[in-house]
Amino acid sequence: MSEAQTKAGFIALIGEPNAGKSTLLNRMVGAKVSIVTHKVQTTRARIRGVAMEGNSQLIFIDTPGLFKPRRRLDRAMVAAAWGGAADADIVVLLIEAHRGITEGVCRIIETLQERETNVPVALAINKIDKVKSEALLALTQDMNDAYPFVETFMISAERGHGCDTLRAWLAEQLPEGPFLYPEDQIADLPMRMIAAEMTREKLTLRLHQELPYELTVETEGWEERKDGSARIDQIIYVARDGHKGIVLGKGGETVKAVSKAARLELEDFLGRRVHLFLQVKVRPNWLEEAARYSEMGLDFKDGNA
Prior knowledge:
With 305 residues, the protein is an alpha/beta fold. Helix content is 36%, strand content 22%. Strand 5 (121-126), helix 4 (133-146) and strand 6 form a beta-alpha-beta unit. The longest helix is centred in the last third of the chain and has 18 residues, at 253-270.
């Protein structure tokens, strides 16, 4: 296929936390490259998922959810989200049908208007199975009155409804040019970071309250073994001594359960055996360490007030 016939470009998915961006990314790519939990703010790095649609290569930037930042980490995440939108060829704003035009959605629309970029913005109304058609039509009208979206889509990222139509439309909009990634590649994140994200997802699902945002996971070692398996060593950093006990659990049962769940998912993802070893370490100021931000694909400087 000659270069002139192919298209490739970047698509930024933006929206409030929990709007379904990671679920949509995974649906578009056909594999799990971004963690999906019921906790908000789980996507920290700008994970790029790569999908092929006919002669087009769609590179999705799954940005952190846009919300009102309070801490350095929050500010860095929001800066990464808007940075992803600025770098894209197309932006897709995802909102939840049953929540409608929230205060957060209003803030996002205001910021889009202030930025006045030439990047086209499409609207995707997600979770359409949760509302009646009349409410959907009214929401579509109100949103398009508020901002000049180039197109509006009704989807259910979880069930797949409308996602093929959205992907086909996106493929048509991309600029002509050569593919930017090998055709069989699904994400440009290093496997070490994907592995860390999988473990962090299991921790987030297992633990509750504020703790998931006070911890991070880093892959410290990755050893390819002669038998084809991989040994992966990871460190779970927590901010306080009390958090270490919560992560470990009684008799170490919590960290064992997390390790098993993460190992099974990694084995499924890699298609081979994995030996996963987790350590829990207390780093009181990890939220203020530039190295931790780099490991998450965020810019430490973006967290400045």
